[in-house]
Write a structure and sequence with these properties.
Layout: H1 5-14, E1 25-29, E2 42-45, H2 56-64, E3 67-70, H3 89-96, E4 101-104, H4 122-137, E5 141-145, H5 150-153, H6 169-183, E6 191-194, H7 206-220, E7 228-230, H8 233-236, E8 252-257, H9 262-265, H10 285-305, E9 309-313, H11 322-338, E10 343-345, E11 355-356, E12 361-362, H12 364-371
Parallel strand pairs: 3-4, 3-10, 4-5, 5-6, 6-7, 7-8, 8-9
Antiparallel strand pairs: 1-2, 11-12
Helix pairs in contact: 6-7, 10-11, 11-12
Length: about 375
């Protein structure tokens, strides 16, 4: 998440204090030894906590998302490779072998015309096609999103990010999704669209409630029943769920993110406006309460509103001591699943990662915390 660098800094400025019913997935077993290749888990699924506002197909899709991973800091960098990691073919094999769902963050906004029509760069779009099709061929669910369209939320631009006329920012989002939806209209229903990663800033509150239905309408013109994820403001904070007004659509899953306790998960990140010092461990009673309070808030919202939820991001920075990273990861995983919330861990092979590109191996204690 820390390229993710400006994002983490902004997240501190907004300082989020970042949930659903009986376990979504039970009894996942991995026959793996330290350093050995992980084997696909077996699982028994139970219904998500609430599906009264969605179709049976979307309910089943939400249930099937299970345990997942983000291929972060790859295709959502301003240019692939800018943040020190590229989406290598071997990564697709690794993640598809052990996870149910792969979330692929994509910075479409930097690979589209700067004008209102936002015509997508075909070479970049074909690159995303390669990834999506390779993952779908492996049988996993795939989530693609609109990630790091910084100007849309009022954030400073990243190096190598292109600036657009503010008058066309919102229209570009609609038109990019119109093209993405058209492009993938015939793909498997295991492909899900997430309209925008972590709306915040100028999109908080009614601004996002007004824009999201326009974006969804562009998607529905060619994908009338595909499952779509929409999240609340303040970086997908569970505490903003009460302000989220969803369009009248029965194929929406709601996305939440949670990095609480933030002073623990982001300690050592030097790109924050006021970095947290290293040395905070996990998980004491206060920290456990922060995590469970957020998840329980989400569970209650889902029960009241009938939309299943997806925990799209949680994780810890690589400089946090490993035993605490493991304890946090296992605790969040267990508490989310206890409430029926499927999840995608942030992230695979970068600064929050569970895989080491340097060694070509899993960070085994973290892998076990997620999957054993």
């Amino acid at each position: 998440m820390t390229h993710e660098r400006p994002r983490a800094r902004s997240r501190l400025l907004h300082q989020m204090t970042r949930s659903l019913r009986p376990p979504l997935l039970l009894a996942i077993s991995l026959a793996a030894t330290a350093g050995a290749a992980a084997q696909p888990p077996r699982r028994t699924a139970v219904p998500p906590p609430s599906c009264s506002a969605v179709t049976q197909q979307t309910c089943s899709t939400a249930q099937a998302l299970g345990r997942g991973i983000n291929l972060g800091n790859m295709l959502e960098a301003p240019r692939e490779g800018d943040w020190g990691v590229k989406l290598e073919p071997v990564y697709i094999d690794q993640v598809a072998g052990v996870f149910d769902t792969v979330r692929v963050p994509v910075r479409w906004s930097n690979h589209a015309a700067l004008t209102a029509d936002a015509r997508l760069d075909e070479a970049f779009a074909k690159r995303v096609d390669q990834v999506v099709d390779a993952l779908l061929a492996k049988g996993v669910h795939v989530i693609i999103n609109m990630h790091h369209y910084n100007q849309l939320s009022g954030n400073p631009l990243h190096p190598n990010e292109k600036e657009v006329d503010p008058a066309v920012m919102d229209t570009r989002l609609v038109n990019m999704w119109r093209q993405i939806a058209q492009r993938y209209r015939d793909r498997s229903p295991r492909l899900l669209f997430e309209l925008l990663n972590e709306p915040h800033g100028r999109l908080n509150g009614e601004a996002w409630n007004t824009l999201a239905p326009k974006v969804l309408a562009a998607v529905r013109a060619t994908n009338p029943t595909r499952a779509v994820l929409i999240g609340p403001g303040e970086w997908n904070s569970v505490h903003e769920l009460k302000k989220l007004r969803l369009p009248p659509d029965r194929n929406i899953i709601v996305s939440i993110h949670n990095y609480d306790p933030f002073d623990f998960t982001h300690q050592g990140v030097q790109h924050l406006a006021k970095p947290f010092p290293l040395g905070t461990t996990c998980c004491d009673a206060r920290q456990r309460k922060a995590i469970t309070d957020a998840l329980e808030t989400a569970r209650q919202w889902s029960a009241a509103n009938g939309h299943p939820l997806h925990l799209g991001e949680f994780g810890t920075y690589e400089k946090v001591d490993l035993p605490s990273r493991v304890a946090y990861t296992r605790f969040v995983r267990d508490e989310a699943e206890r409430r029926g919330i499927p999840w995608t861990f942030w992230e695979f092979a970068s600064e929050f990662g569970v895989w080491s590109p340097k060694t070509g191996e899993w960070v085994e204690p973290l892998r076990r915390a997620l999957l054993d």
